[in-house]
Amino acid sequence: MSEAIVRGVPIHYEVIGEHGSWIALTPGSRRAYDELVPLARAIAARGHRVLLHDRRNCGRSGVAIEELGSEHEVWADDLHELGRQVGAQQMYVGGSSAGARLALLFTLRHPAASQGLLLWRVTGGSTATHELAETYYGAFSKLARAGGMAAVCDSEHFRACIAARPANREKLMAMKPQDFIGVMESWREKFLAAAELPVIGATEAELRAIRAPACIIAGNDRIHPPPTARKVASLIPGAEFHDDVVEKRPDDDLKPQWDAKEWQAAEPKMARIFGDFLECVDR
Questions:
Q1: pLDDT for residue 1
Q2: Contact 34, 12 (CB under 8 A)
Q3: How far apart are CA 12 and CA 2, in angstroms?
């Protein structure tokens, strides 16, 4: 495990594997990368190097609530700079949910650095957009309005960030509540603007313009609905699509939320799918 200063923010990261193509994987929500270690090891065992990192404002990395674009654009640009620092000038970029959005934006913003996309549980639709906008941004704005930055620090998410890196509390407490709220509301509005897009993070035209090869695994819940995955796969030229990695459910009978145990059990199959895809593209 290592740390780099990326655009002024300490970023905690790990590289699994010693040779081969670079793959960067990112989890969903604002979770730390730990859940991806078993999958990363399985992919690395097939001759690759996997870069895992805690994004800013996540896990063991530093907190920096700054309006430098949408939150996912900030994360995409951070990953591009982290890749440069570790010697990964080109990478396959992948992830689930928020990590998939990061990967798409990385490819759109830094196309020369993206060798391909490994996406699972992609997010789209009005229901997902509005629910997640409240979870990621609206809820924190309400906390700051009601109790200032002390209430933000005491939230479940930022309390964990502070436990992992105590200096994060000082960084948060130094912010004026109105400045924190301003960034959260800006990020929220940018997120809500994606409600009618085929996938949160990209327009139809942008998806059609992607030239990086893509491998997409569909979700089976209403936040990561299969129609969104199918739409993305139909728009990215030549995308490889899989909808049978977890329980395949009718579009009108999706799970209310993703099942972590179900996806954990599916990791060996995911590793085979992604590994075969990487070998094909590398050839």
A1: 79
A2: no
A3: 6
pTM over 0.90: yes
Task: List the domains of the chain with CATH numbers.
Answer: 2-124+199-282 (3.40.50.1820), 129-191 (no CATH)
pLDDT > 90? residue 201: no
Contact 154, 250 (CB under 8 A): no
Distance of CA 60 to the CA centre of its chain: 16
Residue-wise pLDDT for 222-269, tens only, equals 999 999 999 999 999 999 999 999 999 999 999 999 999 999 999 999
* φ, ψ of residue 91 in degrees (nearest 5): -145, 150
